[in-house]
Amino acid sequence: MDISMKEIKDTPKYLLIKNAIRDRILLGEFDDKLPGDRVLAREFGFSYMTVRKAIDALVEEDVLFRLPAKGTFVNKGGLSGKKTYNIGFFLEPRIKGGISSPYYSLIFKMMEEILKKEGYSLFFFTDLESIDPLKGQKKYDGLILSCFPAIEKKIATLVQLSPAVIIDNRCHPCNFPYVGIDNRQGVYDAVEYLLRIGHRNIGFVSGIMDSAVGTDRLEGFRSALEDAGIKFSPKMVFGGDYDYRSGQEAVKKFLSLKDSPTAIVCANDSMAFGVIEGARRMGKEIPADLSVIGFDDIEFAAQSSPALTTVKAPIKEIVHCAVDLLLTCLREGTVKENETLFPARLVVRDTCRAL
Q: Which of 92, 196, 201, 340 sits in a 20 to 30 Å window from 256, CA-based?
């Protein structure tokens, strides 16, 4: 145990051991039964009674639990405690619009409706620390988490302590279920459609490139062009952030090029609507002067004028699968690692025309 002299001097001994045990649980070194109290006393170099006091404190906090004649065990997410009938839904705070965004609001609403029928309440949060089961009273029976690489280590640690299902991006390392979209194929199909109706000069407004969702959608764009014998050009890619305004900025850039695109594919619908509005302000008509395709198929996509051609995200399938996996885990008390990818389907409407 790596403890400085100052820490030993300033901190009660049992708290040092308590914190060390908690850290080893978070690191996965203790994931089921703990060594005996006397074994830990020898390992940490403190008295048996001091170790016992640290263990008692962790049991009091519901981090550990004891079984008579069997030993002390890690309380994984409080599974041995009382049910809260709450499910937590986590979104990374950097997501544009958060739970109010057109995409995630649909996901949350659908999750909420399904879970309500099963007797659960769904709560939204953006702070992982607030639901760490080792830092306070248990608040949730299970979690559905939107993962991004910048926080995947925190999520990987957290899901070792609570039943969970991961959506959006895979979490490494993680042995919990993952449910996502075949993002690469979805964009590939959109570009292939434009090529089929005569477009050769196609622009792409990407999403944030700090996750597999962003990189896979860009790869789908690149692959579709290269498979058609068209050389990929970085100048035909605008780095967006899934926000309406980045679509407006993208179309300004593209239409200023000498060889401007005849069609633009966007990594989400919000940016596609930004492209359409930006093009209109520059005197262009959709689709007469510019064809546009989005991704997600948010509710407004079918209601806009012209109605947006887009790649339909399989929201219903993702939500039903994620909730079913989590509820199965809660019922059976076991977690089965698996990966489920649902295809995204191109929905052709009125924002594209053949050349």
A: 196
Pairing, β 309-312 against β 345-347: antiparallel
Burial letters for 91-111: b for 16+ Cβ neighbours within 10 Å, e otherwise?
bbeebbeeeebbbbebbbebb
What are the pLDDT digits (tens) for 56-81?
888 877 778 777 677 888 876 544 45
Which residues are paired to 345 by β-bridges? Answer: 312
For strands 309-312 and 339-342, give the pairing: unpaired
- Residue-number span of the structural domain to which 52 is assigned: 5-74
In degrees and rounded to multiples of 5, residue 237 shows phi and psi of -120, 130
Q: Into how many domains does the chain fold? A: 3
Q: Which residues pair with 178 in a beta bridge?
A: 166, 339
174 plus 192 within the same structural domain:
no
Spatial separation of the C-alpha atoms in residues 58 and 61, rounded to whole Å = 5
What is the pTM assigned to this prediction?
0.77
Q: Is the pLDDT of residue 180 over 50?
A: yes
- What CATH number is associated with residue 55? 1.10.10.10
Average pLDDT for the chain: 88
Long-range contact set of residues 104-113: C-beta below 8 Å, sequence gap at least 24: 104/146, 106/298, 106/299, 106/315, 107/167, 107/315, 107/318, 107/319, 110/315, 110/316, 110/319, 111/87, 111/144, 111/319, 111/322, 111/323
